[in-house]
Amino acid sequence: MTAGQAGDEQRLATLARYAVLDTLPEHTFDRITQIATRLFGVPIALISLVDKDRQWFKACIGLDIRQTDRSLSFCAHTIMGEDVMVVPDATRDPRFADNGLVTGAPHIRFYAGAPLVTPDGFKLGSLCIIDTRPHADFSAEDHASLTDLAGVVVSELELRFTKRQLETEGQARAQMMSFLRESQAVNEALLGVNNLAQLDLPPQDIAAFATELIAQVAGVDWAALIALDSSGGRTVASWTYSENGQSFAQHLPERLRPGEGVAWTVASNGQPHYVNQYADTPNAAPGVVQAGAQAIAWLPLGTYGDQTYVVSYAMLRAGASWTARQRELFGASANAIRQAMSMRELTRTAELAALTDPLTGLGNRRAFMERGALTAGLLAAVDLDDLKRVNDEGGHASGDDLLRLFAQALTAAPQGGQAYRIGGDEFALLLPPDQSPDAFADWIGAALTQVRAGGFRNASASHGVARWPEEAADMGSCLQLADSRLYRHKRERTH
């Protein structure tokens, strides 16, 4: 086996891991190809995944087929390179002049494809656009826009892969629960925790609700969810189930200094800690002993964002000690809580990545279409006028710096304002209906002042404004109207 064959075997293994080949169409991927056809003014756009002997289309606009032989695939050439592959006229390209897709239907003339590169560097296929007539040029901005859209495809594939992994983990959790049927109480409690995991709740809320449920089933006197961060530790939720529990809670410190107490040790080593006869343990806190502590348990729940969580249970009855059933319940429930919280965090992170422009950190076109809609308001379509000049004179790194500076400056928005990057040099700004259209000029002007101070002294921008629902029924038509006014503004400035 040659090095190239070995590399393609690894690539094919990565493609198989995504489990996307031969799946049904999905609206998100179809929408990306629809955006591509509109953005570049071509009749055909494909999300092509290159398999061993074929290329298969996850999304396909403008063609009635779902796959072709790999030998005919333009995209098989695209994944051999690092950048967008452009074929201005396939009839004049010796690689493709005799290709059956050129000499016959669909009579490809122009092709441009951006590789779909996974986070670990494998090229699964490409996002490509096709026309039946040659194109004389394909600008640097076009390269950047097609690359950005290919990045969105990869983000969607990652989100799809993450959700599939989480479903597998959920199945594993269900199998774990089946082994605990000896205790009906344990089974019912874990089923409740599992049901919580299906709710769309923040991780901390899942942990709090589950802790209360387990505490009731376990018959403890006191339970708490503790959050630890760089400033110290605090109890974010607690429950008492007896008079002793109320007295115990009153003797506990409101906050823990960083590194102070068993909770920090448990969080650090990731292992649960059970104590019977607490008064006899080294470094027992006098106040906790006085409050009647007999048996205390601490279990780690993991770190989410900047918070590390630990759950603690206590029994205060004389001679109380942890039973095997309670330990089983605590351990299994902590594992279920960890997985539930992790599921929420992974899903949130993946969804955020799919809605974020990786260069500027602003919401991307998908975020604008899905989250930017208001019941009424004003929309400005904005173009940075001299991005092409900056790219030509200083290179794409300089152009990226300009985009980042402008985007960062736009985050200083008026009350209720929202900013999105929706294309190469295109931005969309939203304001609530009580704002004046003149607020856009002030907003953009202030951003340009910062950009000029950052080294781009000739930076300028054009914009067009539209209002909905008075002038447009929906966000898509409103953006088209604002775009048309933007280009009219550009023409007026150049004449």
Automatic annotation (TrEMBL):
InterPro entries: GAF, GAF-like_dom_sf, GGDEF_dom, Nucleotide_cyclase, Rev_trsase/Diguanyl_cyclase
Organism superkingdom: Bacteria
Domain GGDEF: 375-495
Annotated PANTHER family: GAF DOMAIN-CONTAINING PROTEIN, SLR1143 PROTEIN
Record-given protein name: Diguanylate cyclase
